[in-house]
Amino acid sequence: MQNTVTTDRYISFNGIACDAHAQRIVSAIRIRIADSACPTPWKTYFVTKLNETADRGQDALYFVGSQVNAIRELFAHYNDNAALQLLEQVEEECC
To answer: Cβ distance 29 to 46 under 8 Å?
Structure first.
C-alpha cells in the first residue's frame, strides 16, 4: 500500500511545509534587498519590517502572511517568477 500525504491547511497545515517555505521567501527578500546592482524602493520598507518582526518575536510565516502584497511587488520588480510562484503557494496553502 502506498503511503501518500494529503495536504490540508485547515488541519494544522498537515503535509505542508509552511514554515520552511516562509523561510525561503524571507531569504529571497534578504537577497533581493541586498542587491546593490538593481536597487529597489522597497529596500527601506523591508529592512524596517524584518527588524520589527524580529523585535516582536514573530515568525517568518506571520511576516509573509502580513506582507503578501508588498512581497509580491518586490519579486515582480526583479522578475523573480520562482519566488512569486512560491509566494502564491504559501498564500494559498498557509495563509
So the answer is: yes
> Three-class SS of residue 8?
strand
Task: Quote the CA–CA distance of 93 and 95 in Å, as a whole number.
Answer: 6
Q: Where are the alpha helices (DSSP H) in 1-95?
A: 18-33, 43-56, 60-66, 68-77, 81-94
Cα 46 to Cα 42: distance, rounded to the nearest angstrom: 6
Please classify residue 36 by burial: count the beta carbons closer than 10 Å to its beta carbon, then call 0-12 exposed, 13-18 middle and 19+ buried: exposed
Place of cell 517555505: 21
Q: Which three three-digit cell numbers place residue 17?
A: 511545509
User: What confidence score (pLDDT) does residue 87 get?
Assistant: 98
Taking the C-alpha atoms of residue 8 and residue 89, their distance in angstroms, rounded to an integer, is 13
The answer to pTM > 0.90 is no
Tens digit of each residue's pLDDT (9 = 90 or more) over 17-66? 889 999 999 999 999 999 888 888 899 999 999 999 999 999 999 999 99
